C-alpha cells in the first residue's frame, strides 16, 4: 500500500469520527438525561479531539510523492 493511499484511509477515519461525534452529541442532547448524557457527550468530545489530531497529522504531513 502506498503512502498516499494510507493517508487517504486515515483521513476517512478522521471524517468518520467527526460524523460519529456530531451524531452522538445530537443524540445525547435530545434523548438522554443525567449521567448517561454526560458520558455520551464525553465520548463525543473524545472522538472530536481524536479526529482533529488525525486531520492535523494529515495536513501537516503535506503532499505525498506517490
TrEMBL record:
Pfam families: DUF2768 (PF10966). This is DUF2768 domain-containing protein. It comes from the Bacteria. The chain crosses the membrane at residues 6-27, 39-60. Keywords: Membrane, Transmembrane, Transmembrane helix. It comes from Alkalicoccobacillus porphyridii.
Amino acid at each position: 500500500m502506498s503512502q498516499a493511499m494510507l493517508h487517504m484511509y486515515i483521513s476517512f477515519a478522521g471524517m468518520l469520527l467527526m460524523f460519529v461525534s456530531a451524531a452522538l452529541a445530537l443524540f445525547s442532547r435530545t434523548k438522554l438525561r443525567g449521567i448517561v448524557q454526560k458520558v455520551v457527550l464525553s465520548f463525543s468530545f473524545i472522538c472530536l479531539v481524536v479526529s482533529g489530531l488525525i486531520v492535523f497529522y494529515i495536513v501537516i504531513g503535506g503532499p505525498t510523492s506517490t
